[in-house]
């Protein structure tokens, strides 16, 4: 039974409640559209927002790890460039050593070859000492000179990957031999030149492998970030096509709710006709 009263307007109350719910839904939809997120803060969905923040932290960590490895890659590239030049020069040094091992050389010829040898030896020393990047080098074990092992982070957990430095002195041949026998001794299987050439080749192999490892790790981290971004989007991103359709429906519903409330508010006016 309808209640004819100016104190209680049931129709207006129902219309107002419906309009308030519509306005709340409209505000939520507008927030999703304006931010692009279905979950933009903890009020939208506390559990989903907490997970999203954890994923965002992982992405930030991986980004930092890649930046750090990029710097270390610069050290490695510089090191390999220096070692390549050392390796090339060691080939020239061997050629001179073979000549110095010839016992038929005159004193003048031997002196000239010794001078050439020392010039090449100085080049090797310079290549080793100049192989620095941002004050760091892997061709020295002296920490005071920017050398020593380098431990770089490789992932968002702070796990490190260590690059072991080598002593540059082990890559540089001794002074020029004074006679043919000394030169031949340096060329022997356990001689100074052979030992130093083996050390250069070993360093090339080690640092080449290190460089490949870091490159692969950086690529993997990028792929991992893409996967995390995809998962994060599925968790918190808004479906803008759906939200657009919802927005239009709610706007129409809001207009109808406003009209319905207006009609309900006019209902008590009809009671005035009973007193005429």
Automatic annotation (TrEMBL):
SUPFAM superfamilies: Phase 1 flagellin
Domain Flagellin N-terminal: 6-142
Gene Ontology cellular component terms for the protein in this record: bacterial-type flagellum; extracellular region
A GO molecular function held by the record: structural molecule activity
Pfam families named in the record: Flagellin_C, Flagellin_N
Compartments where found: Secreted; Bacterial flagellum
InterPro entries: Flagellin, Flagellin_C, Flagellin_N
Coiled-coil blocks: none
Residues in Flagellin C-terminal domain copies: 195-275
Predominant cellular place of this UniProt entry's protein: secreted
Keyword Secreted: yes
Alphabetical UniProt keywords: Bacterial flagellum, Cell projection, Cilium, Flagellum, Secreted
Family assignment from sequence similarity: Belongs to the bacterial flagellin family.
Function per UniProt: Flagellin is the subunit protein which polymerizes to form the filaments of bacterial flagella.
Protein name (record): Flagellin
Organism expressing this protein natively: Roseomonas indoligenes
């Amino acid at each position: 039974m309808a209640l004819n009263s100016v104190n209680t307007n049931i129709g207006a109350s129902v219309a107002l409640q419906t309009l308030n719910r519509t306005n709340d839904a409209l505000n939520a939809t507008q927030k999703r559209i304006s931010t692009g997120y279905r979950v933009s803060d903890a009020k939208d969905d506390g559990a989903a927002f907490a997970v999203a923040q954890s994923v965002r932290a992982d992405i930030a960590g991986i980004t930092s790890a890649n930046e750090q490895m990029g710097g270390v890659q610069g050290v490695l590239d510089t090191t390999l460039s220096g070692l390549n030049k050392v390796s090339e020069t060691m080939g020239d040094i061997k050629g001179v050593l073979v000549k110095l091992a010839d016992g038929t050389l005159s004193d003048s010829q031997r002196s000239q070859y010794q001078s050439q040898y020392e010039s090449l030896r100085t080049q090797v020393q310079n290549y080793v000492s100049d192989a620095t990047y941002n004050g760091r080098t892997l061709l020295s074990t002296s920490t005071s000179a920017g050398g020593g092992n380098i431990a770089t982070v490789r992932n968002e957990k702070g796990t490190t990957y260590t690059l072991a430095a080598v002593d540059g002195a082990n890559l540089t041949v001794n002074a020029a031999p004074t006679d043919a026998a000394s030169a031949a001794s340096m060329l022997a299987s356990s001689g100074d030149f052979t030992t130093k050439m083996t050390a250069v080749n070993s360093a090339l192999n080690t640092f080449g492998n290190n460089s490949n490892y870091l490159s692969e790790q950086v690529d993997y981290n990028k792929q991992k970030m893409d996967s995390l971004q995809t998962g994060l989007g599925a968790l918190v991103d808004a479906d803008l096509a759906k939200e657009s359709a919802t927005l239009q429906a709610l706007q129409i519903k809001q207009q109808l709710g406003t009209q319905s409330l207006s009609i309900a508010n006019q209902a008590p006016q009809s009671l005035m006709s009973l007193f005429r």
